[in-house]
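so my prof wants the structure for this chain in the tokens format not the other one, which i didnt know existed until like an hour ago. anyway here's the sequence
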Amino acid sequence: MSGTTLFEEFPEVTTRQWKQQIQSDLRGADYNEALVWQSAEGIPVKPFYNHEDLRADNIPLIHRSDAWLIGQSIEGTDSALVSKNIKDSLALGTEALILTLTSEDAAIRMLGEVVDREPVPLFLDAQFLSLPFIRNLYNAHPTQPENLHLCIDPIGFLARTGNWYVNKNKDLGLVSDVLKQFNQAGLGSILGVDGGLYQQAGATIVQQLAYSLAHAHDYIHHLQPTEVTASSACNFTFKLAIGGDYFFEIAKIRALRALWRTVSAAYGWHPECRIIACPSFRNKTVYDYNTNLIRTSMECMSAILGGADVVYNLPYDAMYLERNDFSERIARNQLLILKHEGLMERPLNPADGSYYIENLTRQLAEKSLELFKDIEAGGGFLKLLGNHTIHRKIKESAGKEATLFSKGDLILTGTNLHINKADRMKNSIEKSPFLVPSPRKTLIEPISVKRLAEEVEQSRLKHE
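here's what i got, hopefully its the right format
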């Protein structure tokens, strides 16, 4: 062979030539009708992509230089039990902790058992807002403050519960106070954005990206810009829920990094964003629950290949069983296998050069940025959240997805296809797997998480 590479032996094939060959093979069928499909985001997906699909102004990607971490989500109020769960988890391969804190008193006791002893990244999901608690927490974590991520998110709390912690002015005022006091403390991050809520409520990927971006931008807008730009610790932590559309979810994470860099650059600053990713509840099932293992494995792969910093898994039986060691171990082992046996320990931007994924990344980013601009023109995320525009848009998208599911165009194996009619679950359920409205007085309607399979499962349980 002459030449320096194998590819020099083959002539280049253009898009036109590919389409002509495909059209010939279709024997008269229309190319667009037979092979091009429209995603929920309005993106036409073609049967093939090549270098002609990349543009000169293609979105520059943010390269991650370090390995992703295996995370573990832990919650509870018993400090001794939580401490044991943390130690067991770390001994079995966990590399980062996501702790849900339900009350300030319980959190102080719990973190007293953990903070000094476990030198791993710690991401907090606090259901309260307290400056003294944050101060005490920082004082207890003086040697490695970069491992501490507060993930303060009162806007996310409002969206999820329908209420502020106290009220808008006090909540955002406290965030401002935290930034002022800890802007030179070297913390890993202070502010958080729970973008996973929008996915699990039924939002499209474009909506998830735009809402997450607008959500974060409202913190910048309502706080003094100098407080944000001066803070070395205000790197945002985005929490994402990963759905079942494998390639789109890879592109979603990549698009978020590019979008965040674009928005923050408008203020003349370049904070990094950390991304925590976990499989979504929305497409998980109670019947034929072992299929959840396949779903979560693929979703974790999307998160890894998309470039998430921390990936934690959802136990396959988390919909209907209380926490148990067996399913937690299986969930963690899925990540261990992907990382060490699947040789995905340090996949530095493996999707680079994929014409399809880079094209998806660009289109998702462009559509999301357009929606983000519409949100800002309409008064910002908080205003649209307050007048329920965000709720209405998510419900419209969720309704379309539910229609596809009911028609069988969106498949959940074991639930609306290949159903095992002999499967019985009624006696195995330990906690309600269904959305249970909680009547209470709220400032706005909460954005509710709901699984696609709920109505089908309720009907099957009723007739067991």
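also thought this was worth mentioning. The beta strands are 37-38, 44-45, 69-75, 96-101, 122-126, 148-152, 189-194, 237-242, 274-279, 310-312.
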